[in-house]
Design brief:
The complex is a heterodimer of chains A (260) and B (315). Chain A is of the alpha+beta class. Chain A has one domain. Chain A has four helices and twelve strands, in the order H-E-H-H-H-E-E-E-E-E-E-E-E-E-E-E. Chain A is flat and about 55 Å long. Chain B starts with a strand and ends with a strand. Chain B is α+β, with helices and mostly antiparallel strands. Chain B folds into three domains: 50 residues, no CATH class; 96 residues, Immunoglobulins (Immunoglobulin-like, Sandwich); 162 residues, no CATH class. Classes of the chains: A alpha+beta (260), B alpha+beta (315).
């Protein structure tokens, strides 16, 4: 289980201005064009595979642009989950995950109060490489607001690297002071489309992984309130030739995580 | 005691009733009958020596070899069959494709008369290459050679793990087709950065990656064919594949018949090319060996989703 990373960097909101959106979009586009090839936008021959160093620098730069965008959107007077999600989509343009994989719903934003404290959970992906199997850097971020300043409490999601992934809030956490978020996804290109799931708990200050599953072949998840429908294929042991069995499970939040 | 042209007599020794002589045959000695002449006080006697041509041949013409194999051999045959010999081998790397390292070959030191089997091994484990190997007997090289193909072991492991069951039911198209789909990744910018089999074939990308260390037949043969692009198999530009469920296969067939541009939701879909993917049904792929009633593999390639059908089929 990966522990969430506590980030102790405070952001000076005064330096951020919501009106910077178009400049951030151009900057994002300029960088992403150098590290992400989309055949129908740019000729494949024109794309030069960047060096590992440039790729790493570009990923950091793209991540930071989205972070700035999130914070700028969050401090806007009329901010909402939808406006923050829209801001991320705006800065990432066609290079957001949901633009090519609509069903993921990522970028994602959820603005709410936990224990009376404003909190924000966001998820987005930075795409590099090629669209055949893109190199997906996944970010699931947990913010809280104290004394009018948004603080990034945890920046996680690396377990969904390379994945088409989704995030949803799970209603009815059995732990009163926590809000639970379910993330799920599969590695793009995986011949088994193996599903992995992580259930995160956020109390406004820290994040913990409550429950996890992985290796569910052909798995799908749908979330409705506090009900999670999970279906996948269960295979006979290696070397046994028998058709897979389709499994459907209805899960709800419980003390142990998601329970039937 | 004298010999004719082509024979050089060495020492000889005699008793009252017998004369012994040693001789060598010159390299340029004419083929055929030669004569040794013995003259004594009692008279002259002629001895006949037949000089033949040493012929060296080898088989097979092609040998597919895993770096874990210890039971594959080259057979060297020499005529005349009574000749005792220990073949050595001359070999050279003729090529290596999309691999991180070159293999080397090793040959056992077997001896015999007439026909000798020499065990061929390759290493280091996981490396690859295509070699031409010639048997050499004395100063004589084989009139033919053996092409030794060592595919990257990771590709043998992938073909075995993903589709060995298909081979067992007589479907020899599936392994070649999924191998070609994997190879297609090297030529497409959408898979930038993946330039070797070792980088492309990873446990997160292939559900059926086995851990076998040798080269079962025909898995190693199919891996070798893909490696050398002698497979004769097309999956168009598809670079991904999956094994559909029954329900997914029904949806794919429906989309194929209707010609819709809307991609059917199927499981398990690897999602390559994201919104721009097209399913390719390869008709010659057998049904899944597990008895589910759907083709063992469906392939994915890129398309223009605005105009191209979501599903096409090929022979």
């Amino acid at each position: 289980m990966r522990r969430a990373i506590i980030i102790s960097v405070w952001i000076n909101m005064a330096s951020l201005a919501w009106g910077q959106g178009s400049g951030e979009r151009k900057q994002y586009d300029d960088i992403v064009r150098q590290v992400y090839v989309r055949t129908f936008r740019q000729g494949a021959k024109a794309f030069v595979v960047p060096s590992a160093e440039k790729l790493a620098q570009s990923k950091v730069a793209l991540h930071e642009i989205v972070n700035r965008t999130i914070l700028a959107a969050a401090i806007a007077p009329d901010s909402s989950s939808k406006s923050i999600q829209g801001a991320i989509e705006g800065v990432q343009g066609d290079e957001s995950l949901s633009r090519s994989l609509r069903e993921t719903g990522v970028p994602y934003a959820d603005l709410l109060n936990i224990n009376g404290m404003p909190t924000l959970v966001t998820a987005f992906a930075v795409l590099t490489g090629g669209e055949g199997i893109p190199d997906v850097s996944a970010y699931i971020q947990f913010y809280s607001k104290e004394a009018g300043i948004w603080k990034l409490e945890a920046d996680t999601g690396s377990e969904f690297a390379g994945c088409a992934f989704s995030v949803a809030a799970i209603h009815g956490s059995p732990t009163p002071n926590e809000v639970w978020y379910l993330a799920w996804g599969m590695v793009i290109g995986d011949t088994g489309a193996r599903l992995k799931m992580r259930l995160y708990a956020f109390d406004g200050a820290s994040v913990r992984t409550v429950w996890e599953q992985s290796g569910l072949r052909g798995g799908h998840v749908s979330v409705s309130g506090n009900q999670i429908t999970l279906d996948y294929d269960e295979f006979a042991p290696q070397g046994t030739l028998a058709p897979p069995m389709h499994v459907i499970k209805i899960l709800h939040p419980g003390i142990q995580g998601l329970e039937q | 005691m004298t010999g004719d042209s082509g024979l050089t007599l060495g020492t000889y020794w005699a008793s009252d009733t017998q004369v012994n002589a040693s001789y060598t045959v010159d390299a340029q000695a004419p083929v055929g009958q030669h004569t040794v002449t013995l003259r004594t006080a009692a008279g002259q006697a002629l001895g006949a020596i037949s000089i033949g041509v040493l012929t060296v041949t080898q088989s097979p013409q092609k040998l597919d070899l895993s770096t874990g194999d210890t039971n594959k051999y080259i057979t060297t045959s020499v005529s005349p069959g009574s000749y005792s010999f220990t073949p050595t081998f001359a070999f050279a790397l003729a090529g290596n494709y999309k691999s991180t390292c070159n293999a080397n070959l090793g040959f056992s030191n077997n001896s015999g008369t007439g026909t000798v089997n020499t065990t061929v091994t390759a290493g280091p484990a996981g490396c690859s290459g295509v070699f031409n190997a010639f048997a050499v007997v004395g100063q004589k090289s084989s009139s033919s050679s053996t092409q030794v193909i060592v595919p990257p072991q990771i590709s043998v492991q992938m073909l075995y793990g993903e589709a060995h069951g298909q081979v067992s039911i007589g479907d020899n198209v599936s392994q070649l087709a999924i191998g070609v789909a994997t190879r297609n990744r090297f030529s497409q910018p959408g898979f930038s950065g993946v330039t070797t089999y070792q980088a492309a074939i990873t446990p997160t990308q292939f559900i059926g990656l086995s851990n076998i260390t040798n080269g079962p037949i025909p898995d190693v043969d199919n891996a070798a064919a893909v490696f050398t692009s002698t497979d004769g198999t097309s999956v168009l530009n598809a670079a991904c594949f999956f094994s559909p469920t029954n329900a997914g296969w029904i949806a794919i067939q429906s989309a194929l018949q209707s010609g819709t541009t809307t991609l059917p939701a199927v499981s398990p879909d690897p999602g390559c090319y994201q919104a721009n993917r097209q399913f390719v049904v390869k008709r010659s792929v057998g049904n899944n060996a597990d008895g589910r009633g759907a083709p063992a593999f469906i392939f994915e390639q890129q398309r223009n989703p605005a105009s191209d059908p979501a599903v096409i089929q090929i022979p």
